[in-house]
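Troubleshooting: if your tokenizer reports a length mismatch, compare your output against this known-good record of 196 residues.
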Amino acid sequence: MANMYYEENPNSSHDIQELSVTLLGENFRFKTDAGVFSKKMIDFGSQVLLNTLTFKFNDSVLDVGCGYGPLGISLAKVQGVQATMVDINNRALDLAKENAKANKVEVDIYQSNIYEKVTGKFDHIISNPPIRAGKEIVHTILEESFHYLNEGGDLTIVIQKKQGAPSAKTKMEEVFGNVDTLKKDKGYYILRSVKE
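Known-good structure output:
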């Protein structure tokens, strides 16, 4: 089965829905649609990831595979980070832009296949990687993140144990020389590596 949401232009017919959710103690509204990841609710992995992250005001954060935007938008609103959000899926990006406006958040959102169009370096990179797009893509997100981090910056991802947490952990250790499991919750692992 092709992975619908790992496409530039999903062709599934639209099914717009609006979610009202509380993230990091704030209320948000997110518009979602067919052909985007986790359209009926903010997936559990993203919520576990969000609840593990504490960034400083004005830290720069790159959200890789942002989808319709719950991670970057909520971090920008609640923690005051400078969020940059990228995804390959144009439908998801249009939603993310609408959602940023609806939640009154200034973020930088653009289309990029992983880091292809990303410029500059960041204090933090976060990702709920698109597991169904395959291990190669997930590992590219992990490997190449190193080049887009400031010294002392970190990569934090959420990944399910059964969907490759052990191999992701090994890959992060290889690339960064360190990896910590910040949290485990219902089979989801939050993994962090620091660029030392």
